Amino acid sequence: MLQADNGHQPIYRKALAVVTLSLLVGLGGCASTSKMTTGSIGAPRMSKPLDQMSAEELNGAVATYGMAYDKNPKAKPVGLGYASALQMAGRNDQSLAVMQQMAIAHPQDRDVLAAYGKALAAAGDLPKALETVRRAQTPDSPDWRLYSAEGAILDQLGQSDAARTLYRKALDIQPGEPSVLSNLGMSYVLTSDLPAAETHLRQAAGRPGADSRIRQNLALVVGLQGRFQEAEQIAGAELSPEDAKANVAYLRGMLAQQNTWSMLKDKDAKKG
């Protein structure tokens, strides 16, 4: 949602940017590297999930993963963790370079190809990201994560109907999966259907395994509908009281401006 972290990063990076980041969550492999706290085989052990770290903590995680990567650049858990940490720190080009090497080392690995697609999307190469994720999918044994990943990329390409078809295919395979429900909800944010977005995000937030970002995005959607006190309560379960208040105050001020939603889209388009 509107993340004001202890590293003093910007409180609110624009609602549309948050939507994009949320959709990218669905592009990971079988285990989301953003949630890794205990080191997978060969990977560093982290004290908390990457998505809960401050900027300073993320820089430390990047350095730790970087040292492990230098020692064993072909190790899958190390490479995936390093790329994810770099993305969380905003170093998308470097993350993509890591995943390019991982894809060379593991050319048939679905987790690696999905994470490579995520890195491509984060770096702005959506057509190649789509090609990579589709290449990882096998029609005779489809992977719900890859359906969700493909849907997230299509959403960013403005193909929301096709994206939602893929999310529902993913849910047919993995009913109630919170990351897919969240992607489906954020898809509706991109088309400004906030009630539908809230419905799916509430379902996602109520499922076992729902992470912090899902609940923060629910708070975002509630706040975008003008229910600021409720949004602050939801955000307060994930952020410090001060950060939750700051986020909602910023959102309230932003929405007070004329044509806010169109302005957000225009700014994001210019940035891209």
UniProtKB/TrEMBL annotation:
<dbReference type="Pfam" id="PF13181">
    <property type="entry name" value="TPR_8"/>
</dbReference>
<dbReference type="InterPro" id="IPR052384">
    <property type="entry name" value="TMTC_O-mannosyltransferase"/>
</dbReference>
<dbReference type="Pfam" id="PF14559">
    <property type="entry name" value="TPR_19"/>
</dbReference>
<dbReference type="InterPro" id="IPR014596">
    <property type="entry name" value="UCP035836"/>
</dbReference>
<dbReference type="InterPro" id="IPR011990">
    <property type="entry name" value="TPR-like_helical_dom_sf"/>
</dbReference>
<protein>
    <recommendedName>
        <fullName>Pilus assembly protein TadD</fullName>
    </recommendedName>
</protein>
<dbReference type="InterPro" id="IPR019734">
    <property type="entry name" value="TPR_rpt"/>
</dbReference>
<feature type="repeat" description="TPR">
    <location>
        <begin position="144"/>
        <end position="177"/>
    </location>
</feature>
<keyword id="KW-0802">TPR repeat</keyword>
